[in-house]
Write a structure and sequence with these properties.
By secondary structure, the chain is an alpha+beta fold. It folds into four domains: about 60 residues, no CATH class; about 110 residues, no CATH class; about 140 residues, no CATH class; about 230 residues, no CATH class. Helices cover about 25% and strands about 25% of the residues. The protein has 14 helices and 30 strands. The strands form eleven sheets. It has a four-stranded antiparallel β-sheet. A three-stranded mixed β-sheet has the order 4-3-7, with helices on one face. It has a three-stranded mixed β-sheet with strand order 6-5-10. Strand 5 and strand 6 form a beta hairpin. The radius of gyration is 63 Å and the shape is rod-shaped. The two termini are about 125 Å apart. The N terminus and C terminus are likely disordered.
Length: about 625
């Protein structure tokens, strides 16, 4: 800010006795009153005194003249200059002539009003108003005229007040009336922005339209093609507001002060809460339930359809949505993997394995076989369930109807309650091998059994060896077992998903042949009443056997693989003959050495060599 102070000289104005006179008049008047004093030089003492008085008077008159001149200028003397501190378009025009002021304004505004866009920085965008659209063009002559007239119009008191204020305070000239602006265009642009930006707050919401289907309806009433519900999400709108009236005034002020940028600070917004998609998913999603079989009644429980929406697709829609959008997310059925109708057709559809073994004519033993078959017959194993033979039969007792029959104990054949039931467990074991089920626990007999291929039997005893296997298929398995036509018959009924079938083979690794032993029995100590030459124990040949699972393609019958299964070892037992001795009878009898030949592999259909021994179990 700078100021111009009027320069008033003595030569321009003088005050004599309170009156204003031009210097020329002052000189003429002085000559008229003192015609004799044409010589300015003083004459003698009197002259020097007069000269001194004249100088002092002149000084006083000069000071008085200066003060009076300033005062007079302030009250009405026009020097042709614009009053101090009068500004326009950011230019201080004070102390300039009108010509100088016009030149200064042209230099400051000719390139701005007609060449620069008004840039309005808004919270979410930038709006630019071009001179071609706003018509901005400054009437410099009119602005300078108003600047010049400031302090020159109005009453004397008004002029004095304005001139006094101009000494210390700037007075900007409002340029708006001289800019030729298209105010309707400017207001229209701002109103259009406000209509798009300003909005009332609305919360986001989610609703489900349509009727909820009965997902657990029976197959007769359930319609998987029926329309599902629609999840409708309405995106909320933020509550935000820009004062367009105030913005309009800011833009006009910017034009008026020759500035071409308006910055609007971002207003505080009330934003709607984000949609919690996972919460909606958890609320409306339900998993399908597969049809299943009741393990007690074997009835099929119908399936239940799942119900949900595509979470990934919904997430993408939500990410791309804008405020105020309405999203429609279609609910969908989720098909169970196992349908009731299909399950009913799959359950117990196939014979996974079957095997038959001939039994003896020992009625007690056959009774035990029948009771064992009855105990396991109809037993259903769910997928993953383990079957325990001993647990299923329970302890074999006379109260349950079991009879005494041949069994092995300590390498000897004895009569035991439940003897013979190992034939049922062995027949069942063979079926599990062919069905390719998981064997949990199995023990071979002590001696080779006549009713089973070697390596494919399973002995059991209460509190002793166990036989267990697991249903390693995806469907239930039912055991069917019976004694009929002189045979033990076992089947495994389930759902065969394999593309192959199995045949079992065994290979004899080594064998041990028995010898004949003569057992001396004192004649005076023979509680079993053995007679001379009686066979006390039959002979059994010993074997070490490897078994193999041979898998064949169901369609081509080609061998796919021959995989080792397990090794089984059977003891040998010498034939024992009773010799009744007295004191004079020799105490030893000749024995035959035990050869150990190795036999070639045979198939399960080949009967094992038993050397006339009795079946185990």
């Amino acid at each position: 800010m700078w100021y111009n102070v009027p320069q008033i000289t003595y030569e321009k104005e003088m005050i004599i006795l309170g009156k204003f006179s031009h210097p020329r008049e002052f000189s003429e008047q002085s000559s008229a009153k003192n015609p004799v004093s044409s010589d300015p030089r003083p004459k003698g003492k009197k002259g020097r005194k007069i000269a001194l008085i004249s100088v002092c008077a002149a000084a006083v008159v000069l000071v008085i003249g200066i003060i009076a001149g300033v005062w007079y200028f302030m009250v009405g003397v026009d020097d042709g200059l614009i009053l101090n501190n009068v500004t326009a378009a950011g230019v201080n025009l004070g102390g300039m002539t009108q010509k100088e002021a016009k030149l200064a304004l042209h230099q400051a505004t000719d390139l701005t009003y007609t060449g620069e866009n008004m840039v309005i920085q808004l919270p979410d965008t930038t709006l630019e108003l071009s001179p071609a659209d706003t018509g901005a063009k400054l009437d410099v002559d009119a602005v300078v005229e108003e600047a010049y007239n400031y302090g020159r119009t109005g009453t004397k008191a008004e002029r004095e007040k304005l001139r006094a204020e101009a000494m210390t305070t700037a007075h900007p000239i409002a340029l708006l009336p001289y800019l030729n602006l298209n105010l309707d265009y400017i207001r229209g642009q701002l109103d259009e922005y406000g209509a798009g930006y300003n909005s009332d707050f609305t919360p986001s919401s989610a609703t489900m339209e349509g009727d909820m289907p009965e997902l657990d309806a029976s197959k007769e009433t359930f319609d998987a093609e029926a329309p599902c519900q629609t999840l409708v999400i309405e995106m909320g709108t933020p509550g935000r507001y820009v004062d367009i009236d105030n913005l309009y005034n800011q833009v006009l002020d910017a034009y008026s002060f020759n500035t071409f940028q308006v910055v609007v600070l971002e207003n505080e917004e009330e934003l709607p809460e984000a949609i919690d998609l996972m919460d909606l998913y958890d609320t409306y999603h339900s998993d399908p339930v597969d049809a299943a079989m009741d393990p007690e009644t074997f009835d099929v429980t119908p399936e239940i359809y799942g119900y949900s929406f595509d979470l990934d697709a919904a997430r993408t829609m939500l990410e791309e949505a804008e405020y105020g959008d309405i999203l429609e997310i279609q609910m969908e059925y989720i098909l169970p993997e196992v349908l009731g109708e299909e399950l009913s057709g799959l359950l117990f559809r196939d014979v996974l394995a079957s095997y038959e073994t001939e039994h003896t004519k020992d009625e007690n033993r056959n009774t035990n076989l029948r009771l064992a078959c009855e105990a396991i017959n109809g037993k259903v194993l769910q997928p993953g369930e383990t079957f325990d033979y001993n647990e299923t039969l329970g302890k074999r007792t006379a109260e349950k109807g079991y009879k005494a029959a041949s069994a092995y104990s300590g390498g000897l054949t004895v009569q035991s309650i439940g003897g013979g039931i190992c034939q049922v467990s062995s027949t069942l074991y063979y079926c599990t091998l062919v069905a390719d089920l998981e064997i949990v626990s199995r023990t071979p007999h002590s001696f080779v059994s006549s009713y089973m291929p070697m390596g494919m039997d399973a002995t059991v005893s209460w509190g002793g060896p166990e036989f267990r296997f697991k249903n390693s298929t995806n469907y239930p398995i039912r055991i069917e077992a019976e004694v009929s036509d002189g045979k033990v018959k076992v089947k495994l009924i389930g759902t065969d998903e394999k593309d192959y079938y199995i045949k079992m083979e065994y290979e004899v690794i080594s064998s041990v042949s028995p010898t004949t032993e003569y057992v001396e029995i004192p004649a005076d100590n023979n509680p079993n009443n053995y007679y001379e030459g009686q066979v006390i124990a039959t002979a059994y040949k010993g074997y070490t056997v490897k078994t193999y699972k041979c898998r064949y393609d169901k369609e081509t019958d080609e061998l796919i693989s021959r995989d080792f299964d397990r090794t089984s070892t059977y003891k040998h037992r010498n034939k024992q003959i009773a010799t009744i001795v007295t004191a004079t009878t020799p105490t030893t009898a000749p024995t035959t050495p035990e050869p150990t030949p190795t036999e070639a592999p045979v198939t399960p259909t080949d009967p094992p060599v038993s050397d006339g021994g009795v079946s185990e179990g």
